Amino acid sequence: MGSSQQDSTHRCNYDLIHLQVLQLYNISPEYTADMRFHFPSLYLENVVLLKIWLEPKTGICKCKTRLYGKVALITGGNSGIGLETARDLAKRGARVIIACRNAAKSEQAVTDIIATTGNTNVEYRSLNLCKFNSVRDFAEDFNKTVDRLDILVNNAGCACLPDRTSDDGIDLVMQTNHLGPFLLTNLLMDKLISSKPSRIVIVSSYLHNFGRLDLEDIAGINTKGDFLKYANSKLCNVLWMKALAKRLPKGVIVNALHPGLVKTDIFKRLPSYVRKIINILTDLMFKNSKEGAQTTIHLCVCEELTGFTGGYYKDCKLHPYHKICDDADFVNMFWDKCLLLTSRRERDL
Q: CA–CA separation, 17 vs 45, rounded Å?
């Protein structure tokens, strides 16, 4: 085959990739031209090859632990890595409770988990982390109706919410990602202690390294910009994990993690044209939800972690974190501020 004929064949293949991407995301060629957003074929081909090369070969939870007789509570368990975590724990035999705000979506998730695992001991309970009253009502009902809690996964999270405060006077991102889970965990602490050995897992993010937290503004009222709000909330997750690790009794462990770059619906509130671009990139480069859930699952079930607390993980391995989290004075002041903001006195730990 001559050089010109080969070039023509490659050009045809590249154009086919271009058209398939446009069709997959329902983007018209005119739209991409208007946005001056193109899909260079060679670039796409290289990205696909890079995706294959980077496809996770490590960071997979290989533990065979069974969870019969155990109870697991997963916030945000109706989608993304929360759903895949719930599915995995149900497959291992645990009673799984997903705590979420969207009832219809959660009921659908429960049906899906039961159908794919054969475990019928899966349920949904309503929880809105943006409202402390909802958190308190949830915890009160849980403590009355569930006899144990072996695994608590603080997974629910959000980004790019409207720039406003909750009814409790706290930035919505900070309340959803940190202070809501902080209060929930404190309210369920007696149940975790009575069920020990038990585990608390906190889903943070590598972006916590970019946080610049002001202890006088943990509520995030004066924090500007979606990125910094999110980064600060995830830094709070790691600080909280460190504070808890020092206060929990023997038999209750807490660890935090970065799930990796995961394709989830966390970007759903961005403008539609931005979401389309992000979806293309995340399809090619990011982990899917099942891959992204592996470190969470590892921290829930790995028997080698029994008794090990206060760690930050990525790809099922210990990973460096923001150095401020090792500042004992800062961590203690942070803990006290969070207790004050959630109007919850510290239990006798």
A: 8
pLDDT single digits (tens) 36-63? 344 444 444 455 545 544 554 458 999 9
Question: What stretches of the chain adopt beta strand conformation (E)?
Answer: 71-75, 95-100, 122-126, 151-154, 198-203, 252-258, 312-314, 317-318
Please write the tens of the pLDDT for every residue from 70-94: 999 999 999 999 999 999 999 999 9
d(CA 214, CA 334): 10
Phi, psi torsion values for 342, nearest 5 degrees: -95, 0
> How far apart, in whole angstroms, are the C-alpha atoms of residue 257 and residue 269?
24
Share of the chain above pLDDT 90, in %: 66
- pTM for this structure? 0.80
Question: Alpha-carbon distance 192 to 203, whole Å?
Answer: 18
Question: In Å, how far are 125, 179, 254, 328, 339 from 240, measured between CA atoms?
Answer: 25, 10, 10, 12, 11
Among 25, 124, 206, 230, the one annotated catalytic:
230
Report the helix count and the strand count for the chain, using DSSP H and E.
14, 8
For residue 313, list its beta bridge partners. 257, 318
Please spell the DSSP secondary structure of 193-229, one letter per residue. HHT-SEEEEEE--GGGGG----GGGTT-TT--SHHHH
Q: At what angle do helices 41-54 and 3-24 cross, to 10 degrees?
A: 70
Q: Tell me, yes or no, if 68 is annotated catalytic.
A: no
